[in-house]
Write a structure and sequence with these properties.
7-stranded mixed sheet; 33% helix
Length: 421
């Protein structure tokens, strides 16, 4: 719903960015009876990252959003129950279960196509909810004749959009996060290559997550998405040539094969069989945990979610999962305070920042310690941390998989954010 501010139209909620966080936030708000407008700078839904593994905590969020079944059915045969970690320096290989020990009897972990997730979320939104080719230029605030604050978004095409609530979901380089005053994400010193390999006749690999570690910060792995597709990745130390290499898919592929020359043949064969159009190479950035906890993550009716709030390295697989959690928690808190939306946003930030900071910190530490695991002096330290982190991931009451984002209740029909003065 929109309302008039003099002669100017003001949207209830504008979401900047049509990624996982943005579309999930729009759908969560719809579930509580609030209409939103999503602004996307591209001409279509973007699927950077090719695929991701949806862990159990994210499935809970998807159930609340009402799309879990639509995402679950196409990937039912690819429940990830097991995995392996191989240290290519020492030759030690460890098998692990991703299911046993969970406090839930219905633990689900499945790899899915990122584009399919975005399309599924977008399909649940009303027509014209997403406005493409809308690139944000600047942000400012103004006070209406009725004495409530409105956020003014100026677009590159000269258009102006006014909103009572603005949610920045446009990724690690978020303009909304910058406007709020959040510290810029910093480099982890590593870069990630991601791709999908196609096997029209079937690949024959087991349905499990295979990881490989080398010295010098090199980690790779692959996960079957279906009987004919495999998602794979390689994390490595960043170098000055990465930006140039990233412009050419063939150069990315060559770089991976060179870096992973000592990886098992099966991994190199998967890379060799990749779909060049799926390849991406990007630096791994993160926002330091104390900036997430103490930084200005909201101001009045403006806040951030997903990577715009808490960018993290992929070492615990929680980037997309935590964005889905954000969406539910944000909508729930706004719906709980219909007459004071600013308080709802403040409560959302309070509820999310400590969990987000823990996820960012644990992910970063995991990535930092991995390169040292082959060194005898620190190998025990690494193994202890990995065992602790994995147990926390699966078993802890407040751990990653057991996190409960809550439920959403449809708001009263009279609900309107403009009640907040």
């Amino acid at each position: 719903m929109e309302f008039e501010n003099g002669e100017k139209m003001v949207h209830e909620v504008v979401i900047v960015g049509a990624g996982i966080a943005g579309l999930a936030a729009a759908l969560a708000l719809k579930r509580v009876g609030i209409k939103s407008l999503v602004l996307e700078r591209s001409s279509e839904l973007r699927a950077t990252g090719t695929a991701l593994v949806i862990l159990h905590n994210a499935w809970r969020a998807l159930e609340v959003l009402g799309v879990a079944d639509k995402l679950d059915k196409p990937y039912q045969d690819f429940q990830l129950a097991t995995g392996s970690i191989t240290n290519l320096v020492t030759g030690v290989r460890q098998e692990f279960s991703m299911i046993s020990g969970s406090t839930s009897g219905k633990t689900r972990m499945r790899p899915i196509h990122r584009k399919f997730l975005l399309e599924t979320l977008a399909a649940e939104l009303p027509p014209e909810s997403i406005r493409f080719m809308s690139k944000l230029s600047s942000i400012k605030t103004e006070v209406s004749k009725d004495s409530f604050s409105v956020t003014v978004l100026e677009m590159e095409d000269g258009s102006v959009i006014r909103a009572k609530v603005v949610i920045g979901c446009e990724g690690v380089h978020s303009a909304v996060a910058k406007w709020l005053g959040l510290a810029a994400p910093i480099s982890s010193g590593r870069s990630a290559v991601r791709g999908v390999s196609i096997y029209p006749e079937g690949h024959g690999f087991k349905k499990q997550h295979n990881q490989y570690f080398m010295g010098n910060g090199i980690k790779g792995g692959f996960v079957p998405i279906s009987n004919t597709e495999i998602y794979w990745y390689l994390n490595k130390k960043s170098n000055p040539q990465d930006q140039e290499i990233a412009r050419e898919a063939k150069m990315i592929k060559w770089e991976v094969l060179k870096t992973a020359k000592d990886f098992p043949l099966e991994y190199r064969q998967v890379v060799s069989n990749c779909d060049l159009s799926s390849l991406t190479l990007a630096p791994l950035l993160f926002r330091v945990p104390w900036n997430i906890v103490l930084g200005p993550s909201h101001y009045g009716g403006v806040t951030v979610a997903g990577d715009a709030f808490h960018p993290m390295t992929p070492d615990l697989g929680q980037g997309g999962c935590s964005a889905l959690e954000d969406a539910v928690v944000l909508a729930r808190n706004i719906a709980n305070t219909p007459n004071n939306v600013n308080l709802g946003i403040e409560n959302y930030v309070k509820e999310r920042r400590w969990r987000a900071a823990r996820l960012v910190g644990a992910s970063y530490l995991s990535g930092v310690l991995e390169p040292w695991q082959s060194r005898r002096m620190l190998s025990r330290m690494w193994e202890s941390f990995r065992q602790y982190a994995f147990n926390w991931l699966l078993h802890s009451k407040y751990g990653t998989l057991n996190y409960d984002c809550g439920t959403l209740t449809t708001a009263d029909e009279s609900f309107a954010l403009n009640k907040d003065k």
